[in-house]
Design goal:
Blueprint: E1 2-6, E2 16-19, E3 29-39, H1 41-48, E4 59-60, E5 65-72, E6 86-89, E7 99-103, E8 108-109, H2 116-136, E9 144-147, H3 153-164, E10 168-173, H4 176-184, E11 189-192, H5 197-204, E12 211-216, H6 222-228, E13 229-237, H7 250-256, E14 259-262, H8 272-287, E15 295-300, H9 304-312, E16 319-323
Parallel strand pairs: 9-10, 9-12, 10-11, 12-13, 13-14, 15-16
Antiparallel strand pairs: 1-2, 1-4, 3-5, 3-7, 3-16, 5-6, 6-8
Length: about 325
């Protein structure tokens, strides 16, 4: 099979589209022929040598994709997925290839009306946005919600889901084009992320003192996020795209009656049934039109270096896909 690989760490130029052996099919795994692959910043970090990697050189990055089951390993049950079934996954390595062996319990069956590209563009970031508004902070109608990086992959979905749940959304983004995308996704108002958005968010909030919850994927902005939350409000910290945050004094949380919550998707995707349950809710939102999946660009897998460069440029709005 052909795969997008790298044997040394560095920029997009280290990526090499090459012939590699077909994956082995261990017990409990299914062999999937991929038709669409989601590209994520985690893949960039792996290519740079700054994130955990599975396997050995030449490495194959990628953890998210969609395709058809073409082989079943020993011990795999006959349901809920069979040979020839359409599937997607969000957390299994070596996805930047034509074929990948995926642990059976990580596979999610795809309804016929969910295209492969939609699944590959939705699952990882959609499941993240979903747990953020369901588990980390249960967004309620009438709440004021602040979303960092609102035109990013998770951000655009967060805006839409929070609006679907009846919240008002204050969206931060770095460019006019990205703010327009956040507004199109349903943000009540948008703000330049390099300006005095704390004061703007407080003035915008119904209370006049701050928002009910802040979703912070930037990290270095955590102190400002705490300032933007009202007394008794909450900050959900789930990423460090802008660098590590400074430590937070728990006395501050006590004095201001604020809650700081960390979030990680892998703590909620506990088994296949949970993956399917959560994915089916996402598919339902796509089906009824309340959640739109925006694809920024599609690149042939052979042109993966260009896809990495585009993602690193921070110009993308929505999901970048690789197509074998």
């Amino acid at each position: 099979m052909r795969a997008l690989t790298f044997s040394t760490f560095g920029g997009p130029e280290v990526l090499d589209y090459r012939e590699v052996p077909d994956p082995e099919l261990p017990a409990g795994h299914a062999l999937v022929r991929l038709y669409a692959i989601g590209l994520n910043f985690a893949d960039v970090y792996r290519r740079r040598g700054a994130y955990h990697l599975a396997g050995s050189p030449p490495w194959i990055a990628g953890y998210e994709g969609a395709g058809v089951v073409v082989g079943l390993g020993a011990g795999v049950p006959s349901a809920p997925i069979a040979l020839g079934g359409r599937v997607g996954f969000a957390d299994s390595p070596f996805a930047n290839a034509e074929l990948v062996a995926v642990p059976f319990d990580k596979l999610i069956p795809l309804p016929d009306d969910v295209p492969f590209e939609t699944a590959a563009a939705l699952l990882l970031q959609g499941l993240t946005a979903q747990y953020l508004v369901r588990d980390s902070h249960a967004v309620a109608a009438g709440e004021d919600v602040l979303v960092h990086a609102a035109a990013g992959g998770v951000g655009l979905l967060l805006v839409q889901i929070a609006r679907r749940l009846g919240a008002r959304v204050f969206a931060l983004a770095s460019s006019e084009e990205k703010r327009a995308a956040a507004a199109e996704a349903g943000a009540t108002t948008t703000c330049e992320s390099s300006g005095d958005w704390v004061a703007a968010a407080k003035a915008w909030s119904r209370s006049g003192t701050g928002v009910d919850v802040v979703y912070d994927s930037v990290g270095s902005t955590l102190d400002l996020s705490l300032q933007a939350a009202r007394i008794g409000g909450q900050v959900v910290f789930y990423g460090m795209a802008g660098g590590d945050p400074r430590p937070v004094d728990p006395r501050r949380l006590m004095d201001e009656s604020k809650t700081l919550t960390g979030g990680d998707l892998w703590n909620v995707l506990t088994d296949q049934a949970e993956r399917i349950r959560r994915a089916e809710e996402l598919f339902g939102w796509v089906r009824d039109g309340s959640l739109r999946v925006r694809i920024a660009r599609r690149y042939p897998l052979a042109e993966g270096a260009g896809a990495h460069a585009f993602l690193e440029s921070r110009q993308s709005i929505g999901k970048v896909l690789l197509v074998p």
